[in-house]
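ok so dumb question maybe but i'm new to this and my supervisor (M.) told me to 'just get the structure for Competence protein CoiA-like N-terminal domain-containing protein' and walked off. so i did the thing. is this what she meant?? sequence i used:
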Amino acid sequence: MRYAIVDGKKSEAQPKLKGHCPNCDAEMVAKCGRVKIWHWAHKGCPPCDPWWETETNWHRAWKNCFPMDWQEVSHIDPYSGERHIADIKTPYGFVIEFQHSIIHHTERYEREAFYKNMIWVVDGLRNSFDLTYFNIGISGPVQNNPLAYKINWWGRSRLLHNWADSGAKVYLDFGGENLWRLIIFDSEKNVGAVGPISKEIFIQNCKNGEPISVSYIDEEEK
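this is what came out, is it supposed to look like this??
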């Protein structure tokens, strides 16, 4: 985890620092080695949230786009008492999950059902060849309003297959200035559609509690 509670304040890991988990109040120890990104770990026990994944610099870069108070916020089911740590939870009750590692479809369904009002931002650069497949397969546009491009997906990668039936909106991050909204994907035909959105606009929409924009081509400018 990035944060623990130290002397009543949300704090990042520093050498020899001790704190408590903001989700379960267990004792936390600071892991500040030379290889892994500095983080907090539960002392002598696994993380309290089984959905938690090891953080990367990609996670941190995205979290830094939002206020600290929105990062790693406990989300509690008012009926069951079940609780999980959202990567980003805005004051508007909206959750953003940043997913780098492969996630089993069962866990994905569970997260979407638990958070309800949420979206996924998926690291499209986890495998070095995914960006190549994306660039080879994209063509169009096939629709102007909202803007959509056809995508054929070849090769051994399962990136689009893994997210084709998501119940929440999915945005793919291939490292450029845009995110790519996964509009639809047919896993049998390996064909679908994606739409671009500026990362800057995406972040501002989320910060302002606005519906996330879709891009379009002005017919008068064609």
